Amino acid sequence: MAVLIALLFFFSSFTQVQALSNPLTGSSGLFNYGKTLELSPPFKELLFELRALGLVDYREELTLLEVSELLQKPLGEGGLFRRKGEERWEMDSLHLTSEERKKLTLLLSELGFIEESREIIDHHFSHVVIFGARAERMEYRLLKTLQFFEEEGFIGDQFFLLGSARPLIDEEVQFLENKIVNFPLEEQDAWRDFLFSKPTEGTAALLLWELHAPPELAPLGLLLEAETIPHGSKRPTSNETIEMLLPFVGECATFFSLSEQPYLRLSDLLRIIVLKDKGDLFSKNFHFSYYHPKLVSPEHIEVVLDEVARNTYLTTEIFKSSLRVP
User: How far apart are CA 317 and CA 306, in angstroms?
Assistant: First the structure.
């Protein structure tokens, strides 16, 4: 019943909004879109530099899909992906000089993967999206979103916590146990029972929301927990967690999402999945605002390159059935 009420509310309460001037290429500078999706000149420059470093065998005559396939090879083996089952912090460091790293960082910054970026279309949002992650990173995203809303005077109708059934690792459980002591004393045992009865990413998201959301926003939090974990994977994909949101999207909506650098792929993916689901990649009925804060301690360049490759793969895979992708 609660879900039905939420659906009726979303389907009926939003006025039409204007689309972004270029809703397809998203918040990175990887792609241009005219009559077809294509690599941007700065992206080509990055690929030529990676070729000069012996990291990828990029050639200008490659199609976009061939480039995407090339970049899916593991880092150090001709591509930029981390190896299957490998976490970001486990990636091997590239043997680069300080000057080589500096040049790559400048190119990645030009593509939008280093410095803070934002595009705010509205101040009242029907859908505020908080992407799932490891518990500590999820807390960062949640706190940063709440802080940004308070500072800017934004209004959110619903805060969607995109969690999953991924089991928590021991470090996350310990992190959350340490957070539970910040609840009122009479609630702490109940929260411990809740955590240990179902130690998943979704449980972490809900616990952190209840801990940090101010009283006036707390009832607006809604956990969407993706249950399916693909074979051989540790967690549902970003696609699957975002698709959990689709039943709550009506014919008009205003979105806000926050993902720290270099994970701007998440806001791009949100935009693409929603528009593709609506059957109109140029729809004028949806706004997508985003904020990509720069981390105090930026991710290693190997992680940023992995994100470039994943952004390329996901974008081309989603677009190729709907748009002309060479």
Answer: 16
